[in-house]
Amino acid sequence: MLRIFCNPALGQRFIRKTFSFSAVATKQFIIKDHYEFDQKVINSDNPVIVNFHAEWCDPCKILTPKMAELLEPSEEIDLAIVNVDDNAELVHTFEVKAVPAVLAFRNGVVVDKFIGLVDANMIESLIGKLTKKKQSSS
């Protein structure tokens, strides 16, 4: 946040930079290639929800921000975004036939998935499954 304060009597402007920080628990990242996918998803200590999407996909434009919002309070689940147009190898590997496609990973293995634009309850259910499994395995 940048605030500019003016003192007309002195003909001066003062610029004061004010920073505000909030704790962002969920890590969200864009996967650029198969190597990065392996590093950030397959080898992750945290469960990861992978959102296969496309820029031209209208349902994806709704689902991606909704998932990020619902994951925000979670400290233990990461969100990876994969653009299907840029990652044909990953699309083939995970047999993505339609977008949006969402896969939930734990310890490098797909443990749940859904395809299409779903309601918040379905996303929360997926998050709950990943959270419960983490708690029960601890």
Task: Considering the chains and any ligands shown, give keywords for the structure.
138 residues; alpha/beta; Glutaredoxin; disordered N terminus; Putative thioredoxin-like protein; Thioredoxin-like_sf; Thioredoxin_domain
Explained architecture:
With 138 residues, the protein is of the alpha/beta class. The protein has one domain (25-137): Glutaredoxin (3-Layer(aba) Sandwich). It is 34% helix and 30% strand. It contains four helices and seven strands; from the N terminus they run E-E-E-H-E-H-E-H-E-E-H. The protein has helices spanning 34-42, 58-71, 88-93, 120-137; strands at 2-7, 12-17, 28-31, 48-53, 78-83, 101-106, 109-115. The strands form two sheets. It has a five-stranded mixed β-sheet with strand order 3-5-4-6-7, sandwiched between helices. It has a two-stranded antiparallel sheet with strand order 1-2. Strand 4, helix 2 (58-71) and strand 5 (78-83) form a beta-alpha-beta unit. Helix 2 (58-71) crosses helix 4 (120-137). The longest helix is centred in the C-terminal third of the chain and has 18 residues, at 120-137. The chain is globular and about 30 Å long. It starts with a strand and ends with a helix. Residues 1-7 and 13-24 have low confidence and may be disordered.
